[in-house]
TrEMBL record:
It comes from the Bacteria. SUPFAM superfamilies: UDP-Glycosyltransferase/glycogen phosphorylase (SSF53756). It comes from Roseobacter cerasinus. It is an enzyme of class 2 (transferase). One of its GO terms (cellular component) is cytoplasm. This is Alpha-1,4 glucan phosphorylase. Its cofactor is pyridoxal 5'-phosphate. The gene is glgP. The lineage of its organism: Bacteria, Pseudomonadati, Pseudomonadota, Alphaproteobacteria, Rhodobacterales.
Length: 807
């Protein structure tokens, strides 16, 4: 939109902006400015340029009186923002030149920004990609979440074991946010219900304030900007002066400390819920603030609440904000006098729910007594919702059952659409977790396969490949990613492939330099970089990757003069602090690395690297440098995955199972450009029914048996020989995730990878075809699908370029 974009900025003008902020906002002059000052000045100069498109977008949204999308998510895994904003504004080159003209190292300043790590993994990163795409598509939207004081913990290794320390991203001022002290809402907990004139009146026992902090999120080419609104908890009374005057200094600060606890830390558990009262309070805290906020906005425009769903679409990212249903119903009934049935149908027309897990134990459930204690009025409202649902459908599925409040069922019943996040996952949602509700509400479950933003995950993290693509097919691809298909015809052109490989080599050298400087680790850039980075979880099977690595080590030692393809096995990822088995796996990877990396026989052929503290910024360095992408979860367990998409887009073929979006990636890139192995989801279920399947698999595989014996007998833990006896015993005894059953297939497929990699030009061709054929996995396509199938929300920036094959 030409009327919204600012006039072109010269590097001279931009360096003047930076100097002005250095002086006026930071109170420093250039000769005394520290790295922090430069980083803040650069960020503020960029932020200035977001404000106009942001205001303009808000104005257009009010004018259009159309629909706003509200994306409620407990997590936003954002990462750094300087490059993201610069790239979206088209100011990346200008910012770099400006800063360097002031004698500063741009890369160093960019790297000084702490990651905003308000999420655990894929779910939070998805929310961040969606925010980028909502702005790029010009759909009026708010992201709503929690402004945690401490994001995801920092991971350190001590003698190979994971240690956690608190993350402190807010220790320095956060450059991108605007504090909104005037936007705050009371959030109530506990207390009692009283009957007044036949109506239920909630007299809460405790109240905190939710206070807004806004970060503008600007889309591609600065055409539109939405708001990420994060809530911080504050006390209703900051300080108890009477306690202080009595000499009770601790007591005087108690209200503040108590309230602040609610937005203090991100729960580091990324799958199962631990049923903590604080967690329930966090969920209600941000959900209630968000619902109050969107209702206030709607009413301030003179809206009639019966027409709420024409103006409001609320998307629940997993069940964490599922209390949105009863909260909206409560406010419609208690605060606005709406009749119950209309309140429920109105809320349902606004709400939609994205399911992210099939593990029944990971669907949130709250003990009913806890729920009544924290949210007594909502407990009654849920009973009304349940009664309406049972009457409407004749269903036998309850929401409150066996002393528990089931948030999955609540979210489902209160949503007009429920979506899974890959084709396979959505089918399994219909067949397994919500089979009964799917019969009660046919057609409610749909699919929206996840995506990733190509601005962060190609354009800015991989400048070498980006430049080659620009030169080859032009520059219109970043918001129309299917255009990458135009690279296919070049995949048989030797000169193009040579340049594609040169870009990969540049990224591998960049990674090698980074690791050398950071950890003192030296990599051989000619070796295959084989990368598995993601949360550590048994279903993701990092252990199987390590077992294969050890088996390979054995084979090389048996035949040191064989024709081996040199590999660097790169691992990255954190384990939830309370997840004992995941932490054992981390320890074992590090123990194995210590022994194997020191082996003179194999050291030029096999290396294990595990840089600590995997996060978004590390992903941005590792993924462009990867030759091989490890997506090896037990089939049926990974809902979609998005790491898999990032690797393929950056020219790393996958070794993987038929799980999550791997299935669709393989369909797109072609079976010949994907290394498939392992049992299918149906075969996994069948295998688990066979007696002693793990023991039999080990007995049938001498190679695996040997590796397990080495680990069990303490080869990798000489100072504590029994360290991994339990881990190995667990595999042989239950092996719920079928590591033993898929091991041979995985090992053999890895040897096919070896052979394929040795033919350099054929490999590069395969890599280039991966990049060319995964344009469909742009989160722009995903968001266009949600907008069309769930929200009925139009773009306000006019006709888009044709998006072929949208969903
Ligand atoms: C993309 C991403 C994830 C999700 O990875 P999966 O392989 O899909 O589990 C997790 N963490 C970070 C930092 C990411 O960038």
């Amino acid at each position: 939109m030409s009327d919204m974009s600012s006039p072109p900025v010269t590097p001279q003008a931009f360096s003047a902006d930076i100097l002005r902020h250095l002086k006026q906002s930071l109170g420093k002059d250039a000769s005394h400015a520290a790295l922090y000052d430069w980083r803040m000045a650069l960020s503020l100069a960029l932020r200035d340029r977001v404000v106009d498109p942001w205001f303009e977008s808000t104005r257009k949204t009010y004018e259009a009186r159309g629909k706003r999308v509200y994306y409620l998510s407990m997590e936003f895994l954002i990462g750094r923002l300087i490059e993201d904003v610069a790239v979206n504004l088209g100011l990346d080159a200008v910012a770099q030149e400006a800063l360097e003209s002031l004698g500063q190292d741009y890369a160093k300043v960019v790297a000084d920004e702490p990651d905003a790590a308000l999420g655990n993994g894929g779910l939070g990163r998805l929310a961040a990609c969606f925010m980028d795409s909502l702005s790029t598509l010009g759909i009026p939207a708010y992201g709503y979440g929690i402004r945690y004081e401490h994001g995801l913990f920092e991971q350190h290794f001590k003698d190979g074991a994971q240690m956690e320390t608190a993350e402190t991203w807010l220790a320095q001022r956060h450059a991108w946010e605007f504090e909104r002290p005037e936007v705050s809402y009371p959030i109530h907990f506990g207390g009692v219900l009283r009957e007044v004139d036949g109506a239920q009146v909630w007299e809460p026992g405790e109240t905190v304030m939710a206070s807004a902090y806004d970060t503008p999120v600007v889309g591609w080419q600065g055409r539109w900007a939405n708001t990420l609104r994060l809530w911080a908890a504050q006390p209703t009374m900051a300080f108890d002066l009477s306690s202080f005057n009595r000499g009770d200094y601790m007591g005087a600060s108690a209200p503040e400390a108590l309230a602040r606890t609610i937005s203090r830390v991100l729960y580091p558990d990324d799958t199962t819920e631990d049923g903590k009262e604080l967690r329930l309070k966090q969920e209600y805290f941000f959900t209630s603030a968000s619902i109050q906020d969107l209702l206030r906005r709607f009413l301030s425009e003179g809206g009639d609440l019966a027409a709420l769903a024409d103006h409001v679409a609320i998307q629940l990212n997993d069940t964490h904000p599922a209390i949105a249903g009863p909260e909206l119903v409560r406010l419609l009934i208690d605060a606005h006098g709406m009749e119950v049935a209309l309140a429920i149908s109105t809320a349902r027309a606004c709400l939609a729910y994205t399911n992210h897990t099939l593990l029944p134990e990971a669907l949130e459930r709250w003990p009913e007594d806890l729920f009544i204690r924290v949210l007594p009025r909502h407990h009654r409202i849920i009973a009304l919702i349940e009664a309406a649902h049972l009457a409407e459908t004749g269903s036998h599925v309850r929401i409150i059952e066996h002393g528990e409040v089931k948030m999955g069922e609540l979210a489902f019943v209160m949503a007009h659409r429920v979506n899974g996040v890959s084709a396979l996952h959505s089918d399994l949602v219909k067949e397994t977790v919500f089979a009964d509700l799917n019969r009660d509400y046919p057609g409610r479950i749909i699919n929206q396969t996840n995506g990733i933003t190509p601005r962060r995950w190609l354009y800015s993290c991989n400048p070498a490949l980006r430049d080659l693509i620009n030169e080859t097919i032009g520059t219109a691809w970043p918001d129309d990613l299917q255009q990458l298909e135009g690279l296919s015809t070049h995949a048989s052109d030797a000169a193009f492939l040579e340049r594609f490989q040169a870009a990969k080599d540049t990224n591998k050298a960049r990674l090698a330099n980074w690791l050398k400087a950071r950890d003192g680790v030296v990599l051989d850039p000619a070796a295959m970089f084989d990368v598995q980075i993601k949360r550590i979880h048994e279903y993701k099977r990092q252990l199987m990757n390590l077992l294969e690595t050890i088996a390979l080590w054995n084979d090389i030692r048996d035949t040191p003069n064989g024709n081996w393809t040199p590999r660097v096995k790169i691992f990255g990822g954190k384990a939830a602090p309370g997840y004992v088995v995941a932490k054992e796996i981390i320890h074992l990877i590090n123990d194995a690395a210590a022994l194997i990396n020191a082996d003179p026989v194999t050291k030029d052929l096999l290396q294990i690297v595990y840089p600590e503290n995997y996060n978004v910024s590390m992903a941005e360095i590792l993924i462009p440098a990867a030759d091989l992408s490890e997506q090896i979860s037990t089939a049926g367990k990974e809902a979609s995955g998005t790491g898999n998409m990032k690797f393929a887009l950056n020219g790393a073929p996958t070794i993987g199972t038929l799980d999550g979006a791997n299935v669709e990636i393989r369909d797109c890139v072609g079976a010949e450009n994907f290394f498939l192995f392992g049992l299918t989801a149906a075969e996994v279920v069948a295998r688990r029914a066979e007696p002693s399947y793990a023991r039999r698999a080990v007995e049938a595989s001498p190679r695996l048996a040997r590796v397990l014996k080495q680990i069990e007998s303490g080869v990798f833990s000489p100072s504590e020989k029994a360290r991994y006896a339990g881990l190995v015993q667990g595999l042989v005894d239950h092996d719920y995730f079928l590591v033993t059953c898929d091991f041979d297939s995985y090992f053999e497929t890895q040897r096919e990878v070896d052979t394929a990699f040795a033919d350099q030009s054929a490999w590069t061709r395969m890599a280039a075809l991966n990049t060319a054929r995964v344009g469909w996995f742009s989160s722009d396509r995903t968001i266009a699908g949600y907008a069309r199938d769930i929200w009925n929300a139009p773009s306000l920036i006019g006709p888009r370029r044709s998006q072929k094959d949208v969903a």
